[in-house]
Write a structure and sequence with these properties.
Layout lengths: L16 H49 L1
Length: 66
């Protein structure tokens, strides 16, 4: 998804320096975006577990009063 093809010069195998820098920046941004997405998913999962635990705790407290 994030990986892009590197542009090669038809007359030689050498890669254009500017293209290399652009692709390196793009790949790095994709890496950071992937890491950010994983962190968001972990945070969301942690929040879901926290809310679930709190609801169970509340449910047990309410059952104790009845």
């Amino acid at each position: 998804m994030c990986s892009e093809e590197y542009g090669y010069n038809d007359s030689s195998i050498e890669m254009n320096q500017q293209d290399t820098e652009v692709h390196a920046i793009t790949d790095q941004q994709c890496d950071f975006a992937s890491i950010d997405l994983v962190q968001r998913r972990l945070n969301q999962r942690h929040l879901q577990m926290y809310v679930h635990t709190r609801l169970l705790s509340l449910e047990h407290s309410v059952q104790g009063f009845s």
